[in-house]
Design a protein that fits this description.
InterPro entries: Aldolase_TIM, Alpha-hydoxy_acid_DH_FMN, FMN-dep_DH, FMN_HAD, FMN_hydac_DH_AS, LMO_FMN. The chain is built from 16 helices and twelve strands. By secondary structure, the chain is an alpha/beta fold. The chain is globular and about 70 Å long. Bound molecules: flavin mononucleotide (FMN) and benzoyl-formic acid. The site of benzoyl-formic acid has 8 residues, from loops.
């Protein structure tokens, strides 16, 4: 584990942003985007229309799991403590052997070009500028090598959709390593795409038009499975992508293949059951992301924050437990950390930020969330995310649920 101190600017930046936004009050200049990140979806929809925003906002079935994600966070309340000298705060955390300036990473989100033409490179630059890791999706609109170049000296984390074709997976891992990616996030909850009525009813499925296939279409192992080059038969290439990008046949035994082909940290994304968390630890994995894919896969599944304590109890001392699904505000970050997550990932809000203002929009989202989290931490009597425990929370009284 590295013990290097947090980058100097990191903790100060969120406080600087608090002042910058606050001092607008002297001139009356309002920010270009809402500082309440729960209002971004509505703003993005006005700008971009119902197709792309519907795809990002959408979830599985009738949205029960998305609501469960909110309910699972909302059922906890923070119990602030006073007179604890909170002038000096350090938001840094250690994750996967690396010190991060704050307990936040951008979740892998595919097809970002539907939100903005600058797509993944813009999100990657924003994340690097703020010192926050960007997890690049396998289903990105831009080939991984180009996104890696945009990441500069930021953390390079890659999310793998574990393809049916071994050679494609092997090739992705090799390319990712060559491009300088260090940690691998393997998403397990999407061996099939779920029933998503909003997309079906709008017939808006971007990858069926070839969006989000850049890593595949540029891959020699993928191309080897095509009768004609991609540009000569786009539909055949898209169908080939659809039938091989995921694999419902995988089992725990297959993890050995990834270990053999990746020498950095491996994190399993989409873990909800404590037994699965134990299997991940037994298989020598370095972390898990407690996540239900933002409610986009199993309708009726457990809210992610309701699954978090069980996973932390099962494996919190054996590997790093990360969390996503439903994080929207600073107090959500606080609650997830108090329940035992080491870091949270943010999904939809940064995609909306990208849609509204490109790289600057993503930076606005990161800075707003961390500024709010820093204030929540301080006002609740705490100075460091690593020291939060469930004692900082109380369960909402049953009659108010
Ligand atoms: C439009 C969209 C595309 C996504 N694409 C991927 C993906 O390619 N790989 C992946 O592991 N997760 C993907 N996810 C899931 C996110 O990584 C993350 O788990 C989820 O968005 C977190 O929930 P939140 O949006 O409530 O923050 C996607 C989510 C959205 C909204
Ligand atoms: O939409 C998603 O949630 C997702 O994970 C995905 C899968 C394939 C292509 C693009 C996005």
């Amino acid at each position: 584990m590295s013990t290097e101190p947090a980058k100097d600017w990191a903790a100060k930046d969120w406080a600087a942003f608090q002042y910058e936004i606050y001092l607008n009050g002297m001139t009356g200049a309002v920010p270009r985007m809402p500082t309440d990140l729960t209002r971004l979806e509505e703003a993005a929809e006005r700008r971009l229309g119902p197709g792309p925003v519907g795809y990002v906002a959408g979830s599985a079935g009738n949205g029960r799991t998305e609501r469960a994600n909110r309910a699972a966070l909302d059922r906890w309340q923070i119990v602030p403590q006073m007179l604890r000298d909170v002038r000096r705060r350090d938001l840094s955390v250690e994750v996967l052997g690396t010190r991060l300036p704050a307990p936040l990473a951008l979740a892998p989100v595919g097809v970002l070009s539907i939100m903005h033409p600058d797509a993944e490179p813009a999100a990657a630059r924003a994340a690097a500028a703020q010192g926050v890791p960007f997890i690049l999706s396998s289903a990105s609109s831009t080939p991984m090598e180009q996104v890696a170049a945009a990441m500069g000296d930021g953390e390079r984390w890659f999310q793998l959709y574990w393809a049916k074709d071994r050679e494609v997976t092997r090739s992705f891992l090799q390319r990712a390593r060559t491009a300088g990616f260090t940690a691998l996030f393997v998403t397990l909850d999407t061996p099939l795409l779920a029933w998503r009525p909003r997309d079906l009813d709008q017939a808006y499925l971007p990858f069926l038009r070839g969006v989000g296939t850049a890593n595949y279409f540029s891959d020699p192992a993928f191309q080897a499975g095509l009768a004609k080059p991609v540009h000569e038969d786009l539909n055949a290439a898209v169908l080939h992508f659809v039938q091989m990008f995921a694999d419902p046949g995988k089992t725990w035994e297959d993890l050995a293949f990834l270990r053999e082909n990746w020498d950095g940290p491996i994190v399993l994304k989409g873990i909800l059951h404590p037994d699965d968390a134990r299997r991940a630890a037994d298989a020598g994995m370095d972390g898990v992301v407690v996540s239900n894919h933002g409610g986009r896969q199993v309708n009726g599944s457990i809210g992610a924050a309701d699954a978090l304590p069980g996973v932390v109890k099962a494996v919190g001392d054996r590997l790093d437990v990360l969390f996503d699904s439903g994080i929207r505000t600073g107090d959500d970050v606080f609650k997830a950390l108090a329940l035992g997550a080491r870091t949270v990932l943010l999904g939809r809000p940064y995609a909306y930020g990208l849609g509204l203002d490109g790289q600057a929009g993503v930076e606005h989202v990161i800075r707003s969330l961390l500024a709010e989290f820093d204030l929540t931490l301080a006002l609740s009597g705490h100075t460091s995310p690593g020291r939060l425990t469930p004692d900082a929370l109380a369960a909402l009284p049953q009659e108010l649920l």
